[in-house]
Amino acid sequence: MKQLVLLFFIGLLAIQCTKTNQKKEPVTGTVAENAMVVSARKEASNIGIEILKKGGNAFDAMIATELSLAVAYPFAGNIGGGGFMVFRTNNGETGALDYREKAPLAASKNMYLDEQDNIIPGKSTLGAMAIGVPGTIDGLFKVHEKFGSLPFSELIQPAIDLAYKGVAVTKKQENRLNKYRHYFLEVNKSPIIFDKHWKENDTIKYLALAKTLERIRDNGRDGFYKGETAEQLVKTVKILGGIITKEDLEKYKAIWRKPIEFTYKNLKIIAMSPPSSGGVCSAQIFKALEPFNIASLGHNSLKAIQLITEAERRAYADRSFYLGDPDFVKIPIDTLISTTYVSKRMANFSWEKATSSKDINHGNIIGYESDETTHYSIIDQFGNAISATTTLNGAYGSKVFVTEGGFLLNNEMDDFSSKPGEPNMFGLIGAEANSIKPEKRMLSSMTPTIVEKDNKLFMSLGSPGGSTIITSVMQTILNVYEFNLSMQEAVNAPRFHHQWLPDVITLEPKGFAKDLVLQLQEKGYQINQENSRIIGKVDAIKVLENGKLEGGADYRGDDAAVGY
Ligand code: GLY
């Protein structure tokens, strides 16, 4: 009998060991010798990589990928929205492009308030009043002017061909279209392409969009900001009660900016500067973590979650108070991201008990963005890297569809704080620095990021996810650097998020054990897991020690890493 029991335990141990060994088997993403594109759709990643194979550089591939996403991923890919791009060339030069939307000239601080100064529900999110002046096309021409090596016509042509040929509907896309169809019907006066009950594997052809892209191919930026496309856009907006004019479109300009650059141990992190909060917040969080030996705490352990949460709480409190469009508000960036300032902010951190957000100064809370954005990363065969995040803001933006032009318009105006100091329609609050003014850019959380290790290119990454973008990107970097996960594992790992207010840690529904949740609650943390959704959708590339590239394409979407 004794022998039988012993055999049973040995058997059990063997099974456990096999399981543990299986778990430890690294999950590696697509690996490529020369170059890689990771984006939300394989069609766009393929088009980007084809440009690189033709001899184009990362900037050429960016233009082709971004335009292909406008066709293949209308949920967030766009020509009617905006975004940010951070780059690092093969000689170490870094920079950033801001092609964020702007408030129209006729915008005003209280445009979303009624006579009693109450926020009018839905006005900043749904329909024509929610639209900011789009920046994507001007941004792509700025990139081409500075870094393009192939003619723009060659870079846009694959997107035009894709629009004519059509794109297969994925299951996730079918679900999204079903979910949002009633908004399309509510907002648009005439039927639009997305009203139809599309099913998985149906092919949607985007013929009107193909014509718009041809006008851009043939007329440059004026193919969007002037002439037929501009007329179609302004007419649609006017019919639906919006305020964007031809002057708004003509005046739009993307801006080259200096990215936020900071060190974390032997990493240099290059991230987006305001009007995105991504770089400043990331710098504050990493600086708060730097004195600790995070690796020794364990991946997603109680202590790691506590520490990261407390760093996030303090950074997001500052975000809400200080950050906005740098062309309109003065931001003390150097102080905010300095080690001295951040360590003072962390001085009251305790392992014993959660800090209460009520006790964290800087008071007037945060602007909140919804989570329907898209990110792509590219490293080319010459060693240039770009990291770009682009958005319509909400799912399919304002739901306003320019039928003749075949494209959706953003609802980025909701990223402003409609009424400083009061909850917006997501139940969160913004501050004066992010109040609405004509031609001002709304605060963003988009965090396209490039990481150097020992002065060499190490990673290009970013994510959608509104305010969770910053924490998703930060955790992915930590997963690789501190916890030694492969790029794909780092992307796959379960994520959590805290943003000061509401004072709650959101955990992804899967991947956090019950007893860990209990331990966090014992320390005084409020947890949201049951009602939570996925957090972020990271697309990333890591340069391996042997010089090859490993992609991390997020399984949470239809994302794809393609390399050669
Ligand atoms: N609209 C999402 C963001 O800019 O953060």
From TrEMBL:
GO terms for molecular function: leukotriene C4 gamma-glutamyl transferase activity. This enzyme consists of two polypeptide chains, which are synthesized in precursor form from a single polypeptide. SUPFAM superfamilies: N-terminal nucleophile aminohydrolases (Ntn hydrolases). Cleaved by autocatalysis into a large and a small subunit. The keyword Hydrolase applies. It comes from Lutibacter holmesii. Belongs to the gamma-glutamyltransferase family. This is Glutathione hydrolase proenzyme. Gene3D superfamilies: 1.10.246.130, 3.60.20.40. It catalyses: an S-substituted glutathione + H2O = an S-substituted L-cysteinylglycine + L-glutamate; an N-terminal (5-L-glutamyl)-[peptide] + an alpha-amino acid = 5-L-glutamyl amino acid + an N-terminal L-alpha-aminoacyl-[peptide]; glutathione + H2O = L-cysteinylglycine + L-glutamate. PANTHER family: GLUTATHIONE HYDROLASE, GLUTATHIONE HYDROLASE PROENZYME.
